[in-house]
Specification:
alpha+beta, 4 strands, two-stranded antiparallel sheet, about 20% strand, about 70 residues
């Protein structure tokens, strides 16, 4: 299970190393470089599945993100 990833801001391209929580989705993140709000692309469950090098931990486990299973 990978819980650290590189998140890339879709607005300015800034890349930061971020920890991915295993128990909840992150759907909003403020870019430290440009201040823009980073949100998931339509159809994705979280910012990591949309803008990071690795999908979120639940998706890595083969589950739907944010599911209760």
């Amino acid at each position: 299970m990978i819980t650290e990833t590189i998140l890339t801001c879709p607005h300015c391209g800034n890349r930061t190393e971020e920890a991915m929580p295993e128990t909840f989705c992150v759907v909003r993140h403020a870019c430290v470089a440009c201040g823009a709000e980073v949100t998931p692309k339509q159809g994705d469950c979280c910012i990591f599945c949309s803008h990071a090098d690795m999908p979120c931990p639940p998706v890595q486990k083969g589950r739907s993100c944010c599911s209760d299973d």
